[in-house]
Specification:
single chain, alpha+beta, TolA/TonB C-terminal domain, six-stranded mixed sheet, two-stranded antiparallel ribbon, 4 helices, 8 strands
Length: about 150
């Protein structure tokens, strides 16, 4: 085969490969052939989420609970969307009076978005409040704090 014949075969081969690649690529007007991937949700520890809190209002200790000496932990399973807003909450445990007070407070929580590989991602986690009553010379005082660690509950 001559030098010119080899060059012609190379050019024709390159052109064929280029045409094959162009025909395989979807045109801009063509609708997507595959459905968009489902949004990913990851589980994150409550300690990580507490580090992402932008705004919160702590629960107000209910007077009835304080006067009855009701205290303890209230734990919620929560889902947080890509913007940092709580989209779902479900109580896992706690006294009903304390749960009601905690639900009101949860509505005020806002988080910085959780980033996975630089992309804001939906999160499932747990968030808890510890309610404690202390008797003083002036009467009874209630104290509420976010729980730093929560044993994982199904």
């Amino acid at each position: 085969m001559s030098k010119i014949g080899t060059i012609v075969i190379l050019i024709v081969g390159c052109a064929a490969v280029a045409l094959a690649q162009n025909s395989a690529a979807p045109s801009p007007e063509a609708p997507p052939t595959q459905a968009q991937p489902a949004r990913q949700t990851v589980r994150v520890s409550n300690g990580v989420m507490l580090g992402l809190v932008e705004h919160k209002t702590m629960p107000t200790y209910p007077d009835e609970a304080m006067n009855k000496g009701i205290q303890g932990d209230v734990i919620f399973k929560i889902e947080v969307d890509e913007t940092g807003k709580i989209t779902a909450s479900e109580p896992v445990g706690g006294d009903p009076l304390l749960i009601a007070a905690s639900k009101d407070a949860l509505r005020t929580f806002r988080f910085r978005p959780y980033l996975l590989n630089g992309t804001p991602t939906r999160v499932k986690t747990q968030l808890g409040f510890h309610f404690a009553v202390e008797k003083t010379a002036d009467g009874v005082n209630g104290h509420v704090e976010c729980m730093a660690t929560i044993p994982n509950r199904p």
